[in-house]
Amino acid sequence: MASSKILFQQLVGEIAAHRIDPSDAAKDLYSQLTPDERLWLLDGDIGLLQFIVQFIREGYCFRPAVAGSIPRLGIPGIRFSDGPRGVQLQGKGTAFPTTSTRAQTWNPDLEEQVGVAIGKELRALGGNYYAGVCVNLAPNPKWGRAQESYGEDPLLIGTLGSALVRGVRTHAIACVKHFALNSMENKRFEVDVECDPATMHECFLPHFRQCLVEGGAESLMSAYNSVNGEYAGDNAALLGILRETWGKEDVVVTSDWLWGTRDSAKSVKAGLDVEMPLRSNRAWQLPKLLRQEQVEWRDIERIGQRILRMELAYYARMVEAPQAPADAPGCKEHRDLAKHVAAEGMVLLKNDDVLPIRPTGQRILVVGPLATSTQTGDNGSSFVPDSTVVSPLEGLRSQSGITIAYLDGYDLGRVEREAQRADIVFALVGYTGADEGEYIANLDPIGMAASLPYLAPYPVIARAICWTAQSVLGLVRLVKGEIGGGDRKTLRLRRADEQLLRAIVTVAGTKTIVAIESSGPVILPALVRKGAAAIMMTGYGGCQYGNALREVLFGDAEPAGRLAYSIVKSEDDIAEIDMNATSVVYNRFWGYRLIQLKGERAAYPFGFGLGYGDFTLEDLQTSSSLNERFFEVRVCIANRGLHQSSTVVQVYAGKASPLASECTRVLVGFARSSRLPPGQFTSVSVRCRLDPLARWESKSDQFCVTRGWYKIAASRYEGDADAIVKVIPVQQVRWTVKTSDRFA
Description:
Layout: H1 7-16, H2 22-30, H3 35-40, H4 48-58, E1 65-67, E2 78-82, H5 99-103, H6 108-124, E3 129-134, H7 154-168, E4 173-179, E5 192-194, H8 197-204, H9 206-215, E6 219-222, E7 226-227, E8 230-231, H10 236-245, E9 252-254, H11 264-270, H12 281-291, H13 297-319, H14 332-344, E10 347-351, E11 363-367, H15 392-397, E12 403-407, H16 412-421, E13 424-430, H17 445-449, H18 459-479, H19 495-508, E14 512-517, H20 526-531, E15 534-537, H21 545-553, E16 583-585, H22 591-598, E17 615-621, E18 630-639, E19 648-655, E20 666-672, E21 681-689, E22 695-697, E23 702-705, E24 708-715, E25 724-730, E26 733-736
Parallel strand pairs: 2-3, 3-4, 4-6, 5-7, 5-16, 6-9, 11-12, 11-13, 13-14, 14-15
Antiparallel strand pairs: 1-2, 7-8, 10-15, 17-18, 18-21, 19-20, 19-24, 22-23, 23-26, 24-25
Helix pairs in contact: 1-13, 2-13, 6-7, 6-14, 7-9, 10-11, 14-21, 16-19
């Protein structure tokens, strides 16, 4: 048996020189492994006790979580860091705006830049695997972890997720999560999501596949929840879609984290490759299962070679890749990028000529406890411990030519008096990690004990271990101030925030700017919507949030965002999903699709945003008929406003005469324009696809767009009354998901 610590690196060099294929190299390397080493590849490298000690001493993901490292042959293993708003390793990473905020940029090029920066920081800090590409679609916008994904539309999610993947892959392996139908937080360990095949393929899986095909992602992470009666990590039908229907045999699937693998035999046979992050079920069970022939060595071999192929291909790619300097994490270039993204992700919902503010000696009253906060989102696995976070108040006070006064807002009488004296009132309200985010308290000891089958004969001991682990992790987070989270209870603001806004708007509405920190839609009181001079959804803006806010308010940057979700008038207009249920059904109607079905109108539609320009759509050009899956639309736009600005041209399509049970229109393409001076015209090319109009045919594993007349609408937002609409014939178009269909 060979015993070379450089064998792995030798094979990497051969692959980089194109003298051997990664698959063949993986077979050669695998043949040098002992039986124990072959099993070692299939889970994390440390045990539960060591993990808990590390967590107490260092916090979450201070160092890479390693799986399958074999020093004897130089195999580095998977070196994991979580996401998706940056890199946690060593507490040195840049805290970028949350994914939900970045989604509001509608800018794939900018998201790819974020991916490059994250990948570079990860590599510089010793990681190689970024599990931060979250593309889950939440039918109910109350989902606690909505801040980790890209909104409510599959095409928007897939396009931006693919861009992040492309960026990350310049320096690291990109992992897309959580596969699949994971969009409830409180009951994520227990809930079974029922979804029929057509709805799953048409609505809840396209963005995953888009990240694989168009982004080039090498890995997926499974989910805690069950799908159609089987846990996602053990689900042969679900993983069969990846391996067989999509033909993605080389993609490595890792488990969702602690206790994400429930059944070792099922998970191996289903095609889940790595149990993360601990030596847990598989370490105890697989030797026995192999002896009993419940699992075969050929199953282990298939998984092991797949893992090695991914690692070899990655390191071969890095031979010619740009370097990741040691000073990359948290560098000025990345902080400046975070500031740019934060500004472009802010969505201006209303502006009665109060923005941008002219810094000419005005007295500005800043109100609200969030003004002094350095939060960057929730306190769960996506938290990035960035020490450079600029609070809103700190950022605003750095603006010259103005006077800033601050009140926390708890004394409403004082707020009303000071608001009347001020020239501008800036009220900052919204949520914190206590209101929404990852929810650690849902680690149910009884449910988790069931995932430790090696202790099945000792259920009391198993439950005690899980209860202790939950208690320790919870206590550490409590001490660190990382408590709360979970699914939102309401789409309204906290009662105190609503009272504060009502008080301010009543006495100073025409000079009041309202900014809202949230991962998703917020229903504002009618008095505030009508009475405030300006309203802005800022999201969670990352480490440079305060500086980005200052630049936006004073016109040095534009709030160029567009909503990645619909803001409804009433919670009656969102999908009826009980976020505390243990069994739910997902259908094809949520968000703007549900609003269309009900014949309602949103308070602020999906895709809406004002910016500092005033754009009109002048002309639409496309083919006279369509018989291909991909097509181009050219739209002439004009900036009729007073400021240089950009817009997002959105193309929606639907049947000219839809059935009552069908969507009127869905997003089929979008493109952000360049910044256009006042009075100027330009033409924007939008690359579109028929995918959102297609229906899944299970018998043939094909998508099909039926022949007929379709409306193609160039819009500024969903349901735009001033959209330019053309009705054109579409021929029947079919395609199989195994074909190469990279969107170029």
